[in-house]
Structures are given as C-alpha cells and as structure tokens.
Design brief:
The complex is a heterotrimer. By secondary structure, chain A is mainly α. Chain A has a single domain, classed as Orthogonal Bundle (ABC transporter involved in vitamin B12 uptake, BtuC), CATH 1.10.3470. Helices cover 78% and strands 1% of the residues of chain A. A two-stranded antiparallel sheet of chain A has the order 1-2. The termini of chain A are far apart. Chain B is mainly alpha-helical. In chain B, 74% of the residues lie in helices and 3% in strands. The N and C termini of chain B lie far apart (51 Å). Chain C has two domains: 190 residues, Response regulator (Rossmann fold), CATH 3.40.50.2300; 146 residues, Response regulator (Rossmann fold, 3-Layer(aba) Sandwich), CATH 3.40.50.2300. In chain C, 44% of the residues lie in helices and 23% in strands. Chain C is globular, with a radius of gyration of 22 Å. Chain C is of the alpha/beta class. Classes of the chains: A mainly alpha, B mainly alpha, C alpha/beta.
C-alpha cells in the first residue's frame, strides 16, 4: 500500500511544472487522501474509518454543488441518497446481483428519479424550491418507512455485503476515493464545459439566459439528474460500508448535512464541498471526547463560521494564501 | 363515522391544532417576510417558552394566566441577544442566515438538554375539567388554549393593522427599499419584529407545554408544522399563515379521523407538494421575483 | 490556491493529534453506545448513568481484583444518533481507537444492528438492546440482549389482562410508526388473538405526533374496551393516556409494549388514574432499592426505565469477569451463560431464547405489573417470563 502514494507523488512532481496552481492543489489533495491509510494504518484504524466517511460524503456534497451552482438549494439529497442505498441494498441482499451491477443500478435508479422529479421540482425557484425539496425529503422517508413489503420498513435492511474485491477497510477506502475522484472529474468537467457557463448564466439571471438562447429548463433538469445519479452512488457505497440501512439514515438531518457542507466549505468552487465534508465529518468525531457538549460546540462553530466566514472555508484558504503571498513578497 | 357528533369533534380538534400552528407560523413567516431569514431557531424559542412557563409556575408560583405572557415576553427579550450577535449580520442573506439559525438552534437545544435534563416533563395541568356537550367532549385546558390563542391573534392583528410600527413592519415585509425610502428605520423594526416573533413562538411553546409535554427537543415538530403552514399560506404572508394554520389543523384532524394516521401524513405531504407546484406562492403569497 | 491543500493537510494532522491518548495498563475500558442527540437522548443518558453507577460501585471497593491484578474500569460513551451509521461509527471508534473489548448498549434496532456488524467480526462483547429478532442469532455469539422484548413479555402480560379483566373483549393497539412499533405490532396482534381478544382497531402514528385527539376520535367510533399504548415512547404514551381520557374513553388503558409507568404518570398527571403497565424493576428487591437510592443521590431527577437495565448489564459483566477470573473476552463470554441464578436488581439472572432465536442469549426476568391509584404507582402482581 505504501508504494502507491509515493508513485502518485512522484508523478505529480514530474509534471507539476506544466500544471496550473489549481491542478497542483488537486493533485496534492489526492496525494494526501491516498497517503491517508499509510499514515495512520499503524495505530488508528478509526481514522481510516473517518477518512472513508469523508471521502464518501464528498461525493454527495460535490454532486449537490452542481445544484448550488444553478442558484438552487436542495434539501432532497437524502432522499436520493436513500434511493441509491435501498436500490443497491435490496438488489444485493434480495436478488444476489453482483456488486458492480448493483452499484451501477443504484446510481441509475436515483438519477432516473431525478430525471422524473426534476421537471416538477425545477419549476420552482428560490425559497419555494427549498421548501418543496424539504417536503420531498420527508415524504421519501415516510415511503421508506411505510412500504414495508419492499423496504422492510423501519427495521431496515441488514447484512449488506461489501464488494468481494474490496472487503478490507483499506481497499474499500481506495474504492471510495476512486469514486470520489471520478465524481470530482465529472463535476469539474460539467462546470468547465459550455454547460458550466450556461449554469452560471442561469444563476445570475434565468430570464436573461433564456433570452440569450440558453435552454434553461433542459439544462436545469439535466444537472439535477446528474446530481441525483452521483449521490445515488454514494448511497450504494455507504450501504456496503455500514452494512445496514434504515429510513433513519435518510432523514432531513442528512440532507441538511450536505447543504451545510456546501455552505461551510464555500459555494463558489468545487473545493468548497470537499473542504466542507472534511470539516463536517471530522468535527463531531473530534468533539466526541466532549460527548455532552459536542452538539453545542458544533452549533457554535456553525454560527461563527456563518458570521465571520460567509464564503466558507474556501474563502479562509484564499485569504490565508493571499496573506502568505503578501508576506512572501 | 360520518355522524354529526364525530364531525363536530373533528372541527373542535382541528381548530385547536390550528390555533397553535398559527401562533408558531406567524412569527416564522414574519421573520422571513421582513428579514428574509428561514429561522430554524424558531422551534427552540418555543421550547424556551415552555420551560420559562414551567419555572415561573413551579418555582416562582406565578399564576398561570400571568406566567404565560410573562414567560413569552422574557424569551422574546432574550431572543434580542440572538438578534444582536447572530442574525443582525445575516439579514437578507437567505442561505447563511438559515445555516446560522440552525447552529443557533443546536446551541439552544443542547444547552437546554444539559441545564434542564432530557427526560420529559409536563407543566402540571392547571385546568383538568372535561366538559361534555351532549356527545361532544371538550377538555377545559383546550378551551383555555383556544381562548388565549384567539386573544393573542386578535391583539396581533390589531397591532399590525392600526399601529404605526405595525404598518411599518408590513411595509418592510412588502418591499424593503420602499420602506427605507420612506424613512422607516429598518434596524429598529427588525428588532421589534424579531422580539414579537420569538415571543409568539414562546407563547405557543408554553401552550404546547401545557397541552402536551416539555423536553429540549419539543420544538422540532412545531417548526416543521410552521414550514408546512407557510407553504400553504405563502411565505411572508401574515393572513396566509393564519389561513394556512387553520387549514393544516383541519386537514390533519379530518384526514386522521377518517383515514388513519399514516394515510393522513402521506396525504398532507402530497397536498403540500401539489400546492407548491400549482401555486408556488402559496394561497396568499406573492410570486418570487427572478433576481 | 495550493494553500487550500496545505490547510487540508493541517486539518488531517490536527485530527491525528487530537485522537485519544493511549490507555494506562490497568485501566479497563468499558465502552458504551447510546443516543445522545435528538428525541431519544434520554436513552443515551440512561445508559451513561446506569453504567457509571455500576463503575462507581466497583471503584468505591478499590477496583476489580482479577487474576492478581487490580483494574479500574472507566466509561467511554459515544453518541449513535439513533441511526445505523451513528451506531457503526460509535462501535468502530470504541473497537479500533479506544480498543474497548466490552460494550454496553446501544438501545434500539438501527444502531444495534449496525454496531453488531462491527463488533461481531472484531470479537468484542456487546450487551445491547433492540427489539428486532435479527439481533440475536446462533452466529452472533459475542452479543447478549440484556432486556426482554415483547416476544418475551407480551404473552405473560396479555394472560394477566385476560385473567384480571375477563369482561374486556375489543382491543385497540396504538404504536409509533418506527422500527420499534413495526416490530411490536404483529407480536401483540398475535398475542391478543391467541388469548381470544378481538383486536378491533390498530393505528401507527408518526413519531413527531403530539396531538392524538384525531386518532383517538377515530378509535372512539370502534367501541373499544382496552386501549394498549404498546411500544409508544414515554413522551407519546403519556400524551395518548391523557388525551384518551380527554376524548372520553372510559375503558382500560394498558401498556404492554414497554415499561414507562413513572414517566407516563409525570406527563398525564391526574388523568393517568387506573393506567396499567409493568416494570422490570421491583423496589422490594433490596439490591434494586440500593440502586434506586444511589441514583437519587447522584442524579436526583426522574429515572428512566432504561437506567437500571444498563446498570444491570454492567453489573452482570463485572460479575462474569470475576467468575472467569480474567478480562479476556472469550473467557468472559463463556462465563456469562453459566451465571443463571446470580442475584440481580431484577431478581435471579436467567438466559433464554433458544427456541425463538437459536441461542440462549436473551435475558429473562420477572415482570412487575403496576397500576396508577390515587396518583401513586401501586404494584398489582408479579408474573414470570419463563
């Protein structure tokens, strides 16, 4: 395992000169994440577990970033996470489908739901979109709970297997990291393309974009569906990681978590959700030693971050680097 | 099932539910209308109102009818601290405001859990009589709650309709720029609005504590109902909140009685989604402008 | 831009530095998992307090003297948030970071099933509670359920009801629509039918419900003799009780799905009169009385029914260590089933469950049937589950 991060780092060094700063930090992050198991495997496999969670959640958070970039805030992401999770869990435990197929199905089913619901949901804007997605999330949780014949009700689905080739914690971590990097590439690809420009135009002014010939509604639905597809993959991975799912895993709190990751991390860059997921997953784990006060401290951090860092952690990074540049010069 | 006594009971239950929903939703919709903040801490202020009433009754031995408004005003005054240190910097900043109030509510809830403990407690029933009007059953505590809610709502509407600050708030809710152009001091009215909204939530919390039970987590359900009520009535619309609250109360009462709890729950979500799609601005709201 | 990466690396380093310190040699980590956030927070607090009281007792006597060594047990508890993910995270942290070999809790099906997926392969002993039958099984040998489920106590309770209220016939069962309620409802339906009752009304309500009058208005139209609050949590059960009387229900109100008489009385006040439920906790038992006094001295407030259950689990665990004269997991695990007859706060210890679950890892005990009379809790009867 230790050889792999070293190789990646060497590769990054050789080609660094041709890369922009953004590329370099991307590679650096991947190196850090890839080296994570090596750095900690000796003593703390719990940190590997937390690392896996961070990587997992960055998938959903990045996918939600696409929706954020359209100027919309969705609280329904837990519902699509759940659709992905239940699809793969039920296929794996019920029909004995192979893991890769169940994994693909989970994303596709979730994306399909996004494609079907998108045209209804995306007619709404601003706070109305927020509220509708909130209700959608609650509705989905009730369906997971009440449709006992399919979902086994509130008791949940137990014994969800991990993919046979990735059953050790370290290999599963790399699987998740691979999916997260792929997801980042997809999101980045979308944002850098013409569609990305159209998304920014839509965020600035829908009517202006429309009058400039941008197929606003179609782009919105497509982006929403892609976002749902990606978070569906997280659902499948997470189900195999925890080996158990139940409606309680897909509540409004979970949707909120994705939103908070994006807001805390920063909404103007794809780095935002990545930083946000590191922060939001790691923070409660660090606070667990003060178990009585962990949620109070968590709340204080949220308030302070919004008060002093409206641009999120990404802004903090930028401010810090600007400061360093000034100091260096 | 469809006999006259059952129907009458459904109406009584529905009005009762609606009264509390309205009290909660009024403040929620007001804060959104005026400050453009989805206040996730609204439920936590209701919770504090419940505990304020409890301690005034049990430790300070203040009579119920005095303790209830007193507790609400105390919580309202305390809420100004939150306004000063958290919300003031985030007005008209929908997203950051929402997350900050979420953090605020976590702080309030989990501090309450540490200070007050987590077990359920109830405000001892001040009124325990039960009246039987023929086949109709009405407990005294519910009549009292209904009466208090009615008086409060009346006072609130009179205030908003006929006083200068009330008018200014309504103008600010309609259009902030117009309000400021007319020399309305936004900051002062924000404080006043936040005070009123939190006091209303705290009053609702006291009534919830009286009818149901107290715990640090009791604010979650009323907060969610407020969401639904303002969707029905239209965000920022005060008459909409009143109508939406009554509508939700009646719908829950009749759907549960005739079709059962699970069906009612799913149906009410379905109805809300339908309303949002067909009439996004709610029954009384204004259409969201493309910014 | 690349400073972002540095920040990330710094965060990762911080995570490493802040992780817990290694333990001293003779410390004995007792892990616990409980819900410490959201609506079920009182369960986690009950777990924390119950286990802590047992540890206090041991440490007051100078620690556990086992195999020539003295061990000082100390408690580490993590929040499971009442979700699968939360239970798995808490278990992973206890097993891998704190190297706990013994875990008490969680309470509830989602965190328990998820935690078991971690603790069973790691060979960590867990004493937990959740109503799902999947929690116990011949393969889960490192797992004991330390509280009875309706599968065990419902038949005894329904039998008692039939004997003492022979004229009642039509029963209403009201359950929360969650993992507990969905599990309990079919067990009670079967139990009542087996004893010749007519279950005329069943309803599952959303966990966020506070006003049950519409539901109870529906029930009133069904001419009900007995209302069973079943597995309703204390908050909802107390409100159901109060509101059932307020809509004019005159029949018997009983709760068979779970013990919570004290909390229900606190919520329903005078309208709790005649309410029947049960408790595993018999204050006549001298050990139980001692525990009750210790609780009152340290914590004062109303005690959750789960607190003695978790205390009991810790006591049983320490006794098993004594008897095995070892803190080796396998030795302790082998000792536990042999402890039948050990005097606990719930009376003599008894393991059962082989017929139902295929393994005798289910704690069985006496049930104390209680009723509210003149605002006080009065003991009506003691019946046995085995």
């Amino acid at each position: 395992m230790t050889a792999r991060p070293a190789m990646t780092a060497a590769a990054a060094d050789n080609r660094g000169s041709r890369f922009s700063a953004s590329h370099m930090s991307a590679v650096a992050v991947i190196v850090v994440m890839a080296a994570w198991p090596g750095a900690i495997a000796s003593s703390e496999s719990f940190l590997l577990y937390v690392g896996t969670l961070v990587v997992l959640y960055s998938v959903g958070a990045m996918s939600l970033h696409l929706v954020f970039r359209m100027g919309q805030v969705s609280f329904a992401h837990a519902a699509f996470l759940g659709i992905g999770g239940y699809t793969s869990a039920l296929l794996l435990t019920g029909s004995g489908l192979s893991w890769p197929l169940a994994f693909c199905a989970s994303g596709l089913v979730s994306g399909l739901f996004g494609l079907l619901l998108g045209p209804i949901v995306l007619r709404l804007r601003g706070v109305y979109f927020v509220l509708f997605t909130f209700i959608l999330c609650e509705f989905a949780e009730r369906v997971f709970t009440d449709w006992g014949s399919l979902t086994n009700g509130a008791g949940g689905v137990a014994g969800i297997p991990a993919p046979p080739a990735f059953s050790s914690p370290v290999s599963f971590y790399y699987l998740c990291l691979g999916v997260a990097v792929l997801c980042a590439l997809i999101c980045r690809g979308v944002l850098k393309s013409d569609v990305g420009e159209a998304i920014d135009a839509i965020r600035t002014s829908e009517s202006l974009a429309e009058s400039n010939g941008v197929p606003v509604f179609r782009i919105k639905v497509a982006i929403f569906a892609i976002s749902c597809l990606l978070v569906g993959f997280q659902g499948a991975l997470q189900a195999s990681f925890v080996h158990y799912i139940s409606p309680a895993s897909y509540t409004f709190d979970e949707s909120l978590r994705f939103v908070v990751m994006n807001v805390i991390g920063g909404m103007n860059s794809l780095w935002g959700p990545v930083l946000g997921s590191v922060f939001i997953i790691a923070l409660p784990e660090l606070l667990r030693n003060w178990v009585e006060y962990q949620w109070v401290l968590y709340g204080v951090v949220l308030v302070l971050a919004m008060r002093y860092l409206p641009g999120g952690l990404y802004e903090l990074g930028e401010r810090a680097s600007a400061l360093l540049r000034k100091g260096g010069a | 099932m469809l006999s006259l006594p059952v129907l009458a009971q459904v109406v009584v239950n529905g009005v009762n539910l609606g009264a509390i929903y309205i009290l909660m939703a009024l403040g929620f919709t007001m804060i959104f209308g005026i400050m453009r903040i989805v206040n996730f801490a609204h439920g936590a202020f209701a919770m504090l109102g419940g505990f304020a009433l409890y301690f005034l009754l049990m430790d300070a031995h203040v009579p119920f009818l005095l303790a209830l408004p007193l507790g609400a005003l105390l919580v309202g005054a305390g809420s100004l601290l939150a306004e000063r240190f958290v919300l003031r910097h985030l007005y008209h900043n929908e997203l950051q405001g929402m997350i900050a109030t979420l953090g605020l509510s976590m702080v309030m809830i989990y501090l309450a859990a540490i200070v007050f403990g987590v077990s359920q407690r109830s405000v001892p029933a001040v009124y325990s009589e039960i009246f039987f009007f023929g086949p109709l059953v009405v407990p005294m505590d519910r009549l009292v709650v209904l009466g208090i809610a009615a008086v409060t709502l009346l006072l609130f509407f009179l205030f908003m309709r006929y006083t200068k600050p009330g008018l200014a708030m309504r103008v600010a809710a309609q259009d902030l720029e117009v309000a400021e152009a007319q020399g309305i001091n936004a900051a002062a009215h924000y404080q006043a609005a936040f005070f009123i909204a939190s006091s209303l939530a705290a009053l609702a919390g006291g009534l919830i504590g009286q009818l149901y039970a107290l715990s640090p987590f009791m604010g979650a359900t009323p907060l969610m109902k407020s969401f639904i009520v303002v969707i029905l009535g239209g965000l920022g619309s005060i008459p909409g909140a009143a109508l939406g609250g009554l509508l939700l109360g009646m719908a829950e009462s009749s759907l549960t009685t005739f079709f059962g709890a699970s069906t009612a729950q799913l149906a009410s979500f379905g109805i809300v989604m339908l309303v949002l799609v067909l009439r996004p601005q709610g029954l009384f709201g204004h259409a969201e402008r493309d910014s | 831009m690349n400073k972002v990466a540095k920040l990330l690396a710094a965060l990762a380093t911080a995570a490493l530095c802040l992780s817990p310190m290694p333990l001293l040699a003779k410390d004995l980590t007792i892990g616990a998992i409980g819900t410490l956030s959201g609506g079920a927070t009182d369960w986690g607090v009950a777990t924390q307090r119950g286990v802590q009281l047992a540890i206090d007792e041991v440490n007051a006597q100078g620690g556990l003297k086992i195999g020539g060594e003295t061990y000082t047990p100390h408690l580490i508890i993590y929040d499971d948030q009442y979700t699968g993910q939360g239970g798995a995270t808490a278990a992973t942290r206890l097993v891998n970071a704190d190297h706990a070999k013994f875990i008490i809790g969680p309470i509830g099906t989602p965190p328990t099933l998820a935690a078991l997926a971690i603790t069973t392969p790691a060979k960590v002993l867990m004493l937990d509670d959740g109503f799902s039958p999947k929690i116990l099984g011949p393969k889960n040998t490192y797992n004991f359920r330390i509280s009875a489920t309706p599968q065990e106590f419902a038949p005894a309770m329904i039998g008692w009801l039939k004997k003492n209220y022979p004229k009642t016939k039509r029963v209403a069962i009201v359950d929360p629509n969650d993992s507990v309620g969905q599990q309990v409802m079919p067990i009670l339906l079967k139990g009542y039918k087996a004893d010749g009752f007519d279950v005329a009304f069943t309803e599952m309500y959303d966990r966020s419900t506070k006003d049950f009058t519409p539901l109870l208005t529906r029930m009133m139209a069904n001419k009900i003799d007995v209302l069973d609050l079943s597995s309703s949590a204390p908050a909802e059960a107390g409100l159901l009780l109060k509101q059932a009387r307020q809509v004019g229900f005159k029949g018997v109100i009983i709760q068979i799905g779970g013990p919570s008489v004290e909390e229900n009385l606190a919520v329903a006040g005078p309208l709790a009169e005649d309410f029947i439920s049960f408790d595993f906790f018999n204050p006549d038992n001298p050990l139980a009385k001692k525990f009750g006094d210790a609780y009152a001295k340290k914590y004062g407030s109303t005690m959750s029914s789960w607190c003695p259950v978790m205390y009991n689990a810790a006591k049983i665990l320490f006794e098993a260590m004594h008897r095995a004269n070892s803190i080796d997991v396998d030795a302790v695990k082998a000792e536990l089933p042999k402890m039948t007859g050990y005097e606990t706060i719930f009376g003599p210890l008894h393991w059962g469950g082989k017929e139902t679950y295929g393994i005798d890892h289910q704690l069985l005990a006496d049930i104390v049937i209680e009723q509210v009379k003149d605002g006080k809790i009065v003991r009506r009867d003691v019946v046995s589950m085995y």
